[in-house]
Structure formats: structure tokens, C-alpha cells
Amino acid sequence: MKKFFLNLLKDIPLMLLSIFLAFLVWVFASVSSDPTEEGRFPHTVTIETVGLDENKIITGGLPYTVSINLRAPNSVWRRISLERVQGKAVIDVTGLEAGTHQVPISVQVGISPIQIVSFSPNTATVTIEEYETREFGLTVNETGEIPTAFRADPAVLSQDTVKITGTVSQLDMIDKVAVDLDRTNATESIESTLAVTAYDESGKAVRDVDIEPEKVKVTQEIRMRGGYRILSVKLAVKGEIAQGYRVDNLSVDPGFVTVYSADKELLNSLTSYIETETIMLDEINSSTNRKISLNVPDGVTLVGDPTVTMNVQVSAIEGTTTIAQIPVSVIGVDEDGNTEVTISPSEIDVYLFGPIVALSEIEPSDIHAVIEVQDLENGSYQIAPKVEISSSDTIAVQSLMPATIEVHVSAVEGSAEISPVPVIVTGIDDDALTNVTVTPSEIGVDLFGPVADLEKIGPADILAEIDVRDLESGTYQIAPFVNLSSYDTITVRAAVPETVSVEVSRTMPTEEPKEEEPAEENPAVSGMPDNR
Fold first, then answer.
1. Which residue in 53, 144, 258, 285 has the fewest CB atoms around it within 10 Å?
2. Does residue 451 contact residue 411 with C-beta atoms inside 8 Å?
3. What is the C-alpha to C-alpha distance for residues 51 and 128, in angstroms, rounded to an integer?
4. pLDDT digit string (tens) for 439-498?
5. How many CB atoms lie within 10 A of CB 406?
6. What is the pLDDT of residues 494-509, one digit of tens each?
């Protein structure tokens, strides 16, 4: 038994070596079948802050995300993508006091096996401040002036204090807390709910603090002084607005004025309004703003500006009319006279919209309808005419009838006789002695087509041919075949003359006896000297 244990102890190193070698073989096989790759973690990793005391707050900007580089097998990378594996980044501020600190960032990825090679950023600058709530007294900032005839009592707040929560540095900046009450031209008591604002010593609002409550109720009694009275302003008008126009608005500003009188009975006997100077409507044909005076009763003093602003908004009454048979002009035609443009119809009816006064004065000669053809190729088109009105800028074209015009653009055509054009003979056999005489040997060619193309053609551009391939000896009247392949827009109307006289004479050649070729002689036999 003892011997068995001794042998076992001797074999332990060999066993451990075998296990280690087997592990290496497994690692090598695993790496070979599932190689490791390095890359950037594909999902967004946001940063979380932990450990912050309740009475503290982090101010300033912190990084929002981190970028992580990993090393992992291919199978793990596939799982990261397919399973949407998430990462985590943490800034731990546990136990940190108020102030600025450089805090490391820790990252984790919820899968293994992986190796985090690097990540950025790996630290963050954290500024921590104390956070507390203080109570401040509340005041009223009164702005704007009330009319002279009124007096205001002190403003009353629904509460005298508010609580403000924020960082210590922000709370230390607060100089006063107030609501802003605008009393401009107020003639009645004010009761309003206003926002509370914290101000620093320079009068600027302190931001990023929480005020409780955010709004408070403010009341202020406003009463009229003795000897004063407020009267509405009545605009005195006569006549009627000019024909073709209407009054859209007729008003005065201000609509109320204040008067003063030491005579209480006189003051109470006044009507509720005061009239302006008389305005003649028949003299107004456009909108206007102007100062006008008030008719103030005797014994009464007007407080403030003795005039008011009259605002009269006048507009023309609009309507429609039709101007028929307006001729349509064509512009943009080539000046060389080689282009022809036809339109149908040549007149249109124009429907107009605008002030009836302007419409009543419009004449057919004031309307111009044109078609622009400068960039058009040959062909047919449907084009809407452009219509302009020279006599008025207040009239608009509502529609046209017809809405489009048929426009046909083509080249100007004509005829021309080109001469002299030589007549070419073709089809002469190579194995026969053929003599062909053409009379006349030159002809004229009558052509038809666009004038611009006809002007370019010369005799050299025309081919006139007579084919005598199948003709026996004799005299014939034949119409030449005329070809003008370079111009497909030109038509050959006739040859002048239409036929030519062709005299064909064929003579078959006689056969001459063939000479026998001499036999090739041997130099030695032919008596040539032997130079050997």
C-alpha cells in the first residue's frame, strides 16, 4: 500500500503537466474556432451619478455618454448586437463635500467574456453645491402712470413672503423679491395675479431657482379725484363717402378724454361725450390718419393733449368686368424672316377684377396680350398668353377665354432651281466597250422646302444619275434620278428638263490569240556562261 502511494506521488507532476497541456489545447482550439476581435461597443452608454446627498446639487455640465472599446470573441460580438446588450457608466460622488472634484468614471458591460480595453472620457469634473430653501420678503414694483384725474392707494399683496429654493450661491445673489404691477393709464381698481421674480443688485432676474408660490394676488384701489370727469370722444361727420368707395373703419384715439371744472354743477350737467371738429366724408377717398381738435364746452378745461387722432380706413368697392376681343401679339420671331408663326384664335376675352372705379375707366387699348416664341422649335404648342394692363396697378387678370392659344411654328418654305447639275452615268459594264452620250449633260433641279435650307444648297449638293446597266445600244429618253440626301427637309419637285437623251453604243471586244509563255530554261542548257 505504501508503495502505491509513493508511485502516485511520483506521477502527480506528470498529471498536472497533462492537465495544463490539455488546457492549452482547449484554449487554442477555442481561439481558432471563435477568434477574438477588438472594436467599439455599438450601443449608447449613458452616465449615471450616484451617492449625491439630498441637500446638495451638481452644477455645471457633466459628460452625457462614454465611448467604450472592447476585446471579445466573435460569438460575443454577435450576442451584443442581437440581444441589445447594454453598458453602464457611473460617477460615484458619495461623501464628496461642496466644491469642484475630479471623479473617475467606472464602466460595465453586461456580458462575458470580454475585456474593456479603454473608454473615454474616464474622468469627469464635478462641481457640487449646497442646496437649501430660504424665506424672502415680497414687495411691489409699480410702473406706469395713472391719469391725472385719478389717485391710487398702496398696493396690497395676498402674502408678504415667499420661499425660494436653490443653490447657496444663487440664493446669496438675491437682493429683493417682487411682483411687477403695470398701472399705465389705469382708471379702475386693479385686481390681478402676478408672477413673483427674484432680482440681484443690478436689477437682473436670478434664474434657476424655485419660488413658492410662483404667483400672488395683488390689489390696488384707484379713485377719481374731485373736479374731474371722463368723457368719451364722438367723431362728428357729415356727407357720404365718394361713389365706388366704402368706409371700413372710423375711429379716434384716444377714445376718452379727461376734463376739469371747479363748478361741480357744470361738470355734472355735461353729456357723456365730447365732439370733435366736423369731418366731411365726401372729401375723403383714401385711408388717412390725422390730428383733429375737440369742441370743449365753456367753463371746462381739457386735461392733456387738446387733440385726438382720427383714423379713417377707406377701401375701393371691387367688382369684375370682361373686355372682349383683345388681339394677341406674337413676339420673339426670328428677324431673318425664315420662321413663320401662326396662332389660333388671334383674339381673347380678358376677365378683370379690381376696384369698380378703375374698371370703369379701363379701355381695350390698355390691355396687352402677347405670346413669346423665341425659344420654340418647329411644331405646335398650346400656350397661355401673358396679359399686362398698362393703365392701372390695382386691376388683376382673373381669367382668360380661351385660357391657351394654339401656336404653330414652322420654317418659311419656297422653291428654287439649282443649276447646272451634271448628269452622271452609272452601270457601264467593265467587259464591254460602251460609249454613252447624254444630251444635255447638265440639268436644272426644281426644289421645294424651307427657304433657309434652300439658300445653303449648291449644284455640288445634288446628285443626278442615269443608270444604263440594262440598256442595249440605242437612243433613249430617260428621267435622271435626283438625290439630295443631306437635306431631308427639301423635296425635289422636278428636273429641268424632265428627261435627257441617252445614246448607248456597245461593242464587244475581239479575242486576241494568247501568246505561249516561254519554257523556263536551265542556265546550263541555254548557253549561259558558267561562272564556277
1. 144
2. yes
3. 12
4. 999 999 999 888 888 888 888 888 999 988 888 888 999 999 998 877 778 888 888 998
5. 13
6. 889 989 999 988 776 6
Which amino acid is present at 462?
Answer: I
Pick the CATH number of 231-315 from 2.60.120.10, 3.30.420.40, 3.40.50.12780, 2.170.120.40: 2.170.120.40
Q: Which CATH class is domain 318-411?
A: mainly beta
Instruction: Give SS3 for 212.
Output: strand
Q: 3-class DSSP state for residue 202?
A: coil
Question: Between the CA atoms of 448, 452, 458 and 463, what dihedral angle is there, to the nearest 10 degrees?
Answer: -50
Q: What is the pLDDT of residues 100-147, one digit of tens each?
A: 898 999 999 988 888 999 999 999 998 888 888 999 999 999 999 888
What top-level class would CATH report for the domain 36-121? Answer: mainly beta
Three-class SS string for 379-416?
EEEEECCEEEECCCCCCEEEEEECCCEEEEEEECEEEE
Q: How far apart are CA 272 and CA 275, in angstroms?
A: 10
Q: What share of the chain is helix, strand, coil (3-state, %, to 5)?
A: 15, 50, 35
Grid cell in block for residue 276:
370733435
Asked whether the beta carbons of 128 and 93 are under 8 A apart, the reply is yes
Rounded CA separation 119/109 (Å): 12
45 pLDDT exceeds 80? yes
